[in-house]
Write a structure and sequence with these properties.
It is built from one helix and eleven strands, in the order E-E-E-H-E-E-E-E-E-E-E-E. The protein is mostly beta strands. The structure holds zinc ion (ZN) (2 copies). One zinc ion binds next to helix 1.
Amino acid sequence: MKKLTGSCLCGKVEIQVPDQFDFIGYCHCSQCRKWTGSAFAAGGLVDEKDFSITAGEQFVSRYPKSEETELGFCSGCGSNLFSHKLKRGKYIVRLGVLDDAPTQRPNVHIYCASKAPWFEITDQLDCYDELP
Ligand SMILES: [Zn+2]
Ligand SMILES: [Zn+2]
């Protein structure tokens, strides 16, 4: 399986994931908006066992958002890296940190019911109020 590498803005943290996501899409929930500081978050879902931090583990800070989710970011530059779904054993990698382009393309919008009122979705991808 081809691997994709990613890194944070300052370059201290490097990650690696397989080039095969269980889910790849755009999340418009208000929490992703806050966390990314952007209109939406682009993410890809992988199994916990397939996700690795290949450099700078000591710079990765984890914010416990809920019992189910821990958010990972670089303590040096603040780049959002992933959310760790603790109970599901999954990681959602922020596609913006990837240095390689994934073979799959984001193919869905989720949590569209809570999208930013100032952002308009202009593509033809499926749009779900919450999850499919
Ligand atoms: Zn960094
Ligand atoms: Zn979200």
